[in-house]
Amino acid sequence: MNSQTLKPTDIKAARELSRLFAQHEGRSTQLQIGSEQITLPRNVLQIMLEVTTQLANGHQVSVLSKDSDLTTAETADLLNVSRPYVVQLLNDGKLPFRMVGTHRRVLLKDAMRYKEAQRKKSLEIMEELSKEAQELGYGY
Fold first, then answer.
1. Residue 76 and residue 22 share a domain
2. N or C: which end of the chain has fewer CB within 10 A?
3. Is residue 81 domain-shared with residue 129, that is, in the same domain?
């Protein structure tokens, strides 16, 4: 999807599609487009439901495969950190990458794996802090 904002008519159409997809969630369904009828598998329907729900809420949507290459800037956006920090992660070997010419590329699945590991680490630290606060009588 491009970076243009969604038109109200697009949001309305996405809302209607999302409603229709939600009615068939969890099972395959028949879909007619023009004169052609196709079977929409359950997993494809789930993806379509997620995409149309996001669009219906006015959000921009991008669809990437797990094997997609990300630039350092795209990786930084995904991880919600600065690009120089991503470069530091790459140089320190904390995030795998490959070179494409003179540019670093990070696989989406590697960036997501790193993001999940950081999320788990944050949760563990918050849990530790909460336990310490309880032991010290701070009422958390």
1. no
2. C
3. yes
Tell me: do 49 and 77 sit in the same domain. Answer: no
The one-letter amino acid code at 130 reads: S
- The answer to the question of residue 140 being in a domain is no
Q: How far apart are CA 50 and CA 41, in angstroms?
A: 14
Residue 32 sits in the same domain as residue 81: no
Q: Is residue 104 part of a domain?
A: yes
User: What is the biggest distance separating any 2 CA atoms in the chain, rounded to whole angstroms?
Assistant: 70
Structure tokens that stand for 140 in this block: 């958390």
Q: Which of 14, 81, 78, 7 is nearest to 51 (CA)?
A: 14
Pick the residue with more confidence: 90 or 136?
90
What's the pLDDT tens digit per position in 56-96?
A: 999 888 888 888 999 999 999 999 999 999 999 999 999 99
Give the count of beta carbons closer than 10 Å to the beta carbon of residue 52: 21
Q: How far, in Å, CA of 38 to CA of 117, rounded? A: 40
| Residues 46, 138: Cα–Cα separation, whole Å | 44
First-residue to last-residue Cα distance in the chain: 44
Q: CA–CA separation, 110 vs 98, rounded Å?
A: 11
User: Is 124 a domain residue?
Assistant: yes
